[in-house]
Predict the 3D structure of the following.
Amino acid sequence: METVSITTSPTYDLTALRRAVITLLEPLGGMSAFVTSGERVLLKPNMLSAKEPDKAVTTHPSVVRVVAGLVKEAGGIVLIGDSPGIGGFLRVAEKSGIFKAARESGAPLVEFKEAVELQGSGTFRSIRIARAYYEADKIINLPKLKTHEMMTMTCAVKNLFGAVIGTEKAGWHLKAGSSRELFARVLLEIYLLKKPALNIVDAITAMEGNGPGSGDPIHLGLLIAGANPVAVDVIAGRLAGIPADMLCIEREAAKMGLPGALASDIRLCGSPIESIPEARFKLPTGLDVQFGLPSFLTKALKNQLISYPAANQKTCKLCGICRDACPPKAITIQNSALSVDNARCIRCWCCRELCPYDAMQTKSGLLLRTLKLLPGRK
Ligand code: SF4
Ligand code: SF4
């Protein structure tokens, strides 16, 4: 059985949060069950882009600070690292508050720049992941619970994709094409290359709607932890009210026979899940409605059941960030207008994720819009 602990934590106030994290980890054996004296422990927060903590795009700096403190008390040497999808590492660290958290914790910030090449076990022959990540004695994964346009939800497993150097992420989107299943498998194989020792999810203020970069903050007041990120994600999805069959990564993990992919494999401890009010996250507008529909229908109506990105010409600043990041180069800017070539687009939604002006929107066909209006669908 995989153990997952849940604790309520209404606030990011440092004193209250420290108490909550200690309570969270107690049933798992406390921080000393994961960290041995003298080990170099890398904290891996979500540092997607340069947004303030209250936007809920990045892991809250208080979570980073409290966990860094507990690792130090357990005798570990703390490092804090990531490779943002967009923006300079220091700018993201500054704006997200993680720079200050690192300074106050006395922990160096490590930008993932140099990579090591590792042999893949299934989907890929080799993959380059950050040396600082691979060579740390222990990884403590600190994801933010958010909706995700391509994968429905991003939490513990998806946060480990940050181990791939920023500029190389787009290449993986391209290799995995528009297949969520294949991309989920790549993410799981990355997790298996270097398993985190511990995952602590910041779900105090989570994100719903058009995550992971442009959604709406939603207060859940929860922390979730466990050694197995797949099991942690299964529980996070349940707490967010996202149907299990829409969690692409966990579905794929179940097919691969990975431990923790089934709710029946998980032992819950801490706050009883029944005592936690059930949330029902708004899902991203770009998410296809193929989930739950018969496969013959989704095949026949594929083109009418999917959404494509389209820039809001009023708010788009033509900065070119999405164009430069688009894996298949489906975006062009000409004559002061941005256009997306739908035939090339693999609907990875990197453009929406990375747009600093929230200008990339969703264009859905009539059938898709109609289906989304049906009762029970968001
Ligand atoms: S959609 Fe956003 S990222 Fe793309 S060019 Fe416009 S403002 Fe820049
Ligand atoms: S246009 Fe956007 S969604 Fe389509 S492939 Fe490019 S980055 Fe991905």
Q: What stands out?
A: The domain at 295-373 is CATH 3.30.70.20 (Alpha-Beta Plaits). Confidence is low (pLDDT under 50) at residues 374-378. Residues 309, 326-328, 330-331, 340, 345-351 surround iron/sulfur cluster (ligand 2) (CB under 6 Å). The two ends are 33 Å apart (CA to CA).
